[in-house]
Task: inverse folding
C-alpha cells in the first residue's frame, strides 16, 4: 500500500511563531479598545458616562445612573445641565465634589503621574514574555540539535 497523504510539515522560525500571535493580540486590543473610533461623544453619551461614575448621595455604592432616588435625579439633572453648558468632565466632577465631598465619586481621583500598578503590570508582563521567548528559543535549539544528531546517526 502506498501512503497517499502528503504531510508537508513546514517549520517556521521561532520569531514567526511567537510574533504572529502577539501581533494578532495587539491588533485585537487596539480594535476592541475603540482607540481608532473617531466619532465624538454626544452630550447624552457624555452625561451617561459621568453619571456612571458619580455616586448617589443618599445611596450606598450605587451610581446616579442606577438610582431612582430624588437626590440621584437632582444630581443627574445637574450633570445634564453642566454638560449642556459645555463644561468638561473634570469641571463637572470638581463642582460635584465641592457640593457633596470626595465620596460623591465612585472612582478615586487620578494620582499624579503614572500609577504604579500599571508600571508593575507592564514590567511583569514583559518579564513573562521574555521568559516565554527564552524557553521557546532554547527548546528550538535543543530540537535542532537533536534533529541534527539524528540525521548524523542515520546510516547513509
Result:
Amino acid at each position: 500500500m502506498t501512503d497517499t497523504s502528503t504531510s508537508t510539515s513546514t517549520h517556521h522560525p521561532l520569531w514567526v511563531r511567537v510574533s504572529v500571535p502577539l501581533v494578532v493580540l495587539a491588533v485585537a486590543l487596539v480594535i476592541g479598545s475603540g482607540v481608532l473610533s473617531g466619532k465624538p461623544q454626544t452630550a447624552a453619551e457624555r452625561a451617561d458616562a459621568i453619571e456612571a461614575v458619580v455616586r448617589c448621595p443618599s445611596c450606598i455604592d450605587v451610581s446616579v445612573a442606577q438610582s431612582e432616588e430624588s437626590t440621584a435625579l437632582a444630581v443627574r439633572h445637574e450633570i445634564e445641565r453642566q454638560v449642556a453648558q459645555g463644561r468638561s468632565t473634570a469641571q463637572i466632577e470638581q463642582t460635584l465634589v465641592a457640593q457633596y465631598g470626595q465620596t460623591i465619586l465612585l472612582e478615586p481621583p487620578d494620582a499624579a503621574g503614572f500609577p504604579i500598578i500599571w508600571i508593575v503590570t507592564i514590567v511583569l508582563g514583559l518579564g513573562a514574555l521574555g521568559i516565554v521567548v527564552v524557553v521557546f528559543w532554547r527548546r528550538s535549539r535543543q530540537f535542532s540539535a537533536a534533529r541534527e544528531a539524528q540525521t548524523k546517526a542515520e546510516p547513509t
About this structure: Helices lie at 14-33, 43-53, 70-84, 89-100, 116-153. DSSP finds five helices and no strands in the chain. The first helix runs from residue 14 to 33. The two ends are 25 Å apart (CA to CA).
